[in-house]
Amino acid sequence: MPEFSGLNHVSLSVTDLDASQRFYTEVLGFRRILDVGYARICIHQRTRFVLALVHHAEGTGGRFSELATGLDHLGLAARDRDEVVEWEARLEAAGVPHSPIQDMPLGYHLNFRDPDGIALELQAPTAQYAAVLADVAAQEVSDEEVAALAARLLGPPA
Question: Does the pLDDT of residue 24 top 90, yes or no?
């Protein structure tokens, strides 16, 4: 099977390029690197993550819903729970509504939305989950081994 080299970019359809650009640059720290009229290309310089914000002239203009087929949410990585707490304070200072931090078996989650209602999440894995991800990424792991790792993290399936 051919392989791909990694995630290249994510492109989001938005209703207002200026409002979306302000949110992603001022709140989340992206930098706009290109404006092609109907789209703005932004980069998070430290991670090199590229985000395209696109306005389609024929777009429906409705609010995002994770209940529609397609994107459920965009997950952004945080280093650890302390960094999630820092992001919670950042979102509060910027006036961005958000969920409380959720401590879950696989990690710590903070959910919020962009100006179009696109669901975003900051997530930091637990140490145990990070170790499992590192193991699975570094070597061939059988389906049985993956099931055992999942059971160790989550408990047996209900």
Answer: yes
